[in-house]
Structure formats: structure tokens, C-alpha cells
Amino acid sequence: MRQMTVMEYKELLDSGADHVLLDVREPDELATAAIHPCLEVPMRTIPQRMEELPKDKPIVVVCHTGTRSMQVCQFLDRYGYDNVVNLMGGINAWSRQIDPSVPLY
Questions:
Q1: Do 18 and 57 meet the contact criterion of CB atoms below 8 Å apart?
Q2: Is the whole-model pTM more than 0.70?
Q3: Facing residues of 62 across strands?
Q4: Is position 63 annotated as part of the catalytic site?
Q5: For each of the chain's 105 residues, which pLDDT tens digit applies?
Q6: Which CATH superfamily hosts domain 2-97?
Q7: What residues have CB less than 8 Å from 31, skipping those under 6 apart?
């Protein structure tokens, strides 16, 4: 499974490269802090909502600290999603290293 740092993700964003940011946190977490635009699919609903996830473009998966997103990456990998990347440190690292206006929680 591939991983990327928040610095690498910032470079990807700035480059304008086509991708999907998949946020697998719960709705109350998303209401507190988020990176937009993102596709909001809570981890527990991934199996029922996989048809919403493209197989033809990179998917960067984010959660709070990188644990749930890693699990989702491993799950999607088993179902043929071969261009899935875990955002290490999650939204917490994004807030600390990239955008301090994103609240920590």
C-alpha cells in the first residue's frame, strides 16, 4: 500500500493533478475540520458505497490520524483499486504542517 505525506499531498493539490480525496471520517468530524473538495464516505459505509469510488483516477484516503484511512486503503486494494494512497497523519498532520486554520480535534 502506498502512502504520502501531507507535504506531498499539498504538492499534488498545487499541481492540479486529477484525483479524488476520500475522507472516511464520521460526519461530526467532517463538520469540525476538512480539506475541500473531498468525497465524504464514512469508513463503516465503504462496502455499501464502493460504486461511488472511481477506479480510473488516484484516490487519496484521509481520516483523523491515518489509521482508518490505512485500513480503507487495504480494503480497497483487495477489491481491485490499485491507485489508492493513504495520507499519513491525516487531517491532524494537515492542520499542523500545512493549514493551521483547519481546527485540531
A1: yes
A2: yes
A3: 23
A4: yes
A5: 799 999 999 999 999 999 999 999 999 999 999 999 999 999 999 999 999 999 999 999 999 999 999 999 999 999 999 999 999 999 999 999 999 999 999
A6: Rhodanese-like domain (3.40.250.10)
A7: none
Residue 101: how many CB atoms within 10 A of its CB? 7
CA distances from 48 to 10, 76, 89 (A): 30, 12, 26
DSSP string, the chain: -EEE-HHHHHHHHHHT---EEEE-S-HHHHHH---SS-EE--GGGHHHHGGGS-SSS-EEEE-SSSHHHHHHHHHHHHTT--SEEEETTHHHHHHHHT-TTSPP-
Q: 3-state DSSP: the chain helix, strand, coil percent, rounded to 5? A: 45, 15, 40
Which candidate in 63, 70, 73, 93 is catalytic? 63
| Alpha-carbon distances, residue 55 vs 39, 40, 82, 84, 88 (angstroms) | 14, 17, 8, 9, 21
